[in-house]
């Protein structure tokens, strides 16, 4: 149980880092609309975020 709890905490930390990167890229893309590499990175990060949220909801993080 403790081990799965640690894994979920790590996933949350990773998720918060991804969200911060997404916010930074959004701000960057507001000024640089033709930066296609950043757009691609943004889409990759959004998909990672979606997968992590799906994993956390599927495995019910709040189990006791």
TrEMBL record:
Its transmembrane ranges are: none
Record-level GO cellular component terms: ribonucleoprotein complex; ribosome
Keywords for the protein's UniProt record, in alphabetical order: Ribonucleoprotein, Ribosomal protein
Biological process (GO), any one: translation
- Residue ranges annotated as coiled coil are none
A UniProt-annotated Pfam family: Ribosomal_S15
Protein name stated in the entry: 30S ribosomal protein S15
Record the organism: Candidatus Shikimatogenerans sp. AspAUS03
